[in-house]
Amino acid sequence: MSTISAKAAGTITLAGDLTVNRLGFGAMRLTGPGIWGEPRDPEGARRVLRRAIELDVDFIDTADAYGPDVSERLIGETLSPYPAGLVIATKGGLLRDGPDQWRPDGRPEHLREALEGSLRRLRLEHIDLYQLHRPDPQVPFEESVGTLVDMQREGKIGHIGLSNVDEQQLEQGMRMTDIASVQNRYNLADRESERVLVRCEAAGIAFLPWFPLAVGQLATPGGPLGAAAREHGATPGQMALAWLLARSPVMLPIPGTSSVEHLEQNVAAAAVKLTPDEVDTLAVA
């Protein structure tokens, strides 16, 4: 396991000046059940974060809604002062009413409050990449994005990202400002955001696929990836991540876990290399 490294995935540069290894870590699952409350094993969650750094993961994605507040606080407590080159991305724009409950709030005043809270919990003076977590149908999209632009001008945000957007919203955001990343649901079994990915490729925008393993659906031995995994001496979950990495040069997977063992398996996927023919074959499997 000591030879596992996220460096094997190669690098990607966000917005021209943030170069990171192309396999990151999503910190959503470092919380309690339903992404609510404290983790069952707080020290175990800290071990996962520390091990991610040891494995050369230098991009960590979180959000104020995870817990809420719990994931960001654990990151700040465990990793601050941060090692050089580590990029912390977070998100604002969702409220939590209970386990597995998510409610959009894109009002400018809420986004400002969310950002200030993230800065405190993460122990940062500015956020490298701050993402609108989800468009709020009750708030004009340009108002929410415009608030992020204002906070960027104030020096609190380095780069702006969007999450859970369609192609039209991405185009609207791009007309307002430079968009560094898009984080949408995408995996081998769910490619509803394919057109958004293609637009990101054309514009050189990093694409962060959430739900990369379909919560384990793609990681089962008897699933669609089992035979290909055996040929590569890999697990089905590693094949699912390798497929994402091979699918597009702008892809930046951020698989999450609360287990050090599972983290190591995920990062090891960076070394699994698929041919173009394998990518096409798996896409129709």
Topology of helices and strands:
Blueprint: E1 11-14, E2 18-21, E3 25-26, H1 42-54, E4 59-61, H2 70-79, E5 87-92, E6 94-95, E7 103-104, H3 108-122, E8 127-132, H4 141-153, E9 157-163, H5 167-176, E10 179-185, H6 194-203, E11 206-210, H7 226-232, H8 236-247, H9 260-268, H10 276-283
Parallel strand pairs: 3-4, 4-5, 5-8, 8-9, 9-10, 10-11
Antiparallel strand pairs: 1-2, 6-7
Protein architecture, described:
The chain has 285 residues and is an alpha/beta fold. It has one domain: TIM Barrel (Alpha-Beta Barrel), CATH 3.20.20.100. Helices cover 38% and strands 17% of the residues. The protein is built from 10 helices and 11 strands. The strands form 3 sheets. A 7-stranded parallel β-sheet has the order 3-4-5-8-9-10-11, covered by helices on one side. It has a two-stranded antiparallel ribbon with strand order 1-2. α4 links the parallel β8 and β9. α1 crosses α2, α1 runs parallel beside α9 and α4 runs parallel beside α5. The longest helix has 15 residues.
Number of strands: 11
Please state the CA-atom Rg, rounded to the nearest Å. Answer: 18 Å
Biggest β-sheet: strands ordered side by side in the sheet? 3-4-5-8-9-10-11
The pLDDT mean sits at: 95
Indicate the overall shape.
Answer: globular
- CATH fourth-tier homologous superfamily: NADP-dependent oxidoreductase domain
Architecture (CATH level 2) name = Alpha-Beta Barrel
The CATH class is Alpha Beta
Low-confidence regions = none
- Cα end-to-end separation: 30 Å
Helix and strand succession? Answer: EEEHEHEEEHEHEHEHEHHHH
For the biggest sheet, the summary is: 7 strands, parallel
- The portion of residues forming beta strands comes to 15-25%
